[in-house]
Amino acid sequence: MMLIVRFPPFMEHAGVPEIWRKARTKPEMALEEIDRLTAVGVRFGTVLADAGYGLSAPFRQGLSARKLLWTVGIPRHQKVYPIDVSLIFPVAGHGRPRKNPIPDTLSIPAETMLADASWTSLSWRIGTKGPLEAAFAATRIRVADGEPQRILVKGQQHMPGEEAWLIGELRSSGERKYYLSNLPGDTELKTLAASIKARWVCEQAHQQMKEELGLDHIEGGKGSTDMR
């Protein structure tokens, strides 16, 4: 898509509508699609996304601004703060006093936050070879996705953002996955795990549409082309 955007004649020849002739990230397109669907009456339970979307702070914040619940994958190095982080005004050793408060503790990677967590084995559905199981851990945190600010000797760091669940998944292979969710603070671990695994239904449907309906072979020659 980015290649086409850089060459307006291609967009003109393809019949791409004017409103789409701008570079947009996938998270931006996703939010626009959510707005379009909401405008025609579609309602959402929990928005689910992989880490390709979940690592985008504007995407997560956009979902929250729309009053939507979400559970998204994140990279293991996503920075988070403890839930009890406070903002303080440290005494300056020299120079003028600070105008803005800073966190009383530094943010750390998601994997570090859950390094000493207690993991609980859960099963979310029955597969062809028996129950599908993994171990899960979760804790309440503040996401480090606020405004960037100079924090002591660490330079520019993101301030604490909204409260959320940090969830870890330990698979039987030893692989660990991490997620963020803005589900309520009293949500049970099994519900958080079910929210994560609900994405399988979407992925399975997409795969079947390609295999059974041949959607992976459809090509649109014009921006107004209908999929038939």
From TrEMBL:
It comes from the Bacteria. Residues 12-131 form the Transposase IS701-like DDE domain. Pfam families: DDE_5. This is Putative transposase.
